[in-house]
Amino acid sequence: MNVDYRHHTVFVNHKGTLMIEGYNDISSDECFCIVAKGHRYHKYGIADDSLLYCCKNAEVGDGDLVVAFDGDVPTIYLYREDSEIAAEDEERILHDRKQIHAKVLGSFNFYH
Predict the structure, then answer these.
(1) What residues contact residue 44 under an 8 Å CB cut-off, 6+ apart?
(2) Residue 79 is part of a domain; what is its CATH number?
(3) How confident is the model at residue 112 (pLDDT cuts 50, 70, 90)?
(4) Which of 9, 17, 22, 69 sits a CA distance of 20 to 30 A from 108?
(5) Domains in the chain, number
């Protein structure tokens, strides 16, 4: 998947579907949204009730936010390749690439 992450126009199509330019041909089997709970990742722009856009087939690198399951609950982690790196503040660190379900590609915050 080759996607330009610098700038993406967000719009609603004629069917009322929210669209993100550059993500038109992505399968709903591979990409999904989850709602963030908590305050662990504020420094990444993620607040309580942020809508997180995630993709299973996106390439994951050191320092990326990822989704892994804690039991049946999708949970956000900071992926670190170096097992010696410890969590800062209240971050959750994941070192095992095999546990990654998807990469967090972006977040949307809605204000009332």
Answers:
(1) 65, 107
(2) 2.10.109.10
(3) low
(4) 69
(5) 1
Confirm whether 19 is domain-assigned. no
Q: What is the extent of the structural domain holding 90?
A: 29-108
Rounded CA separation 50/53 (Å)? 10
Mean pLDDT score of the chain: 84
- The string of pLDDT tens digits covering residues 58-98 is 899 999 999 999 999 999 999 999 888 777 778 899 999 99
The answer to whether the CB of 70 falls within 8 A of the CB of 85 is: no
Residue 100 near residue 79 (C-beta atoms within 8 A): yes
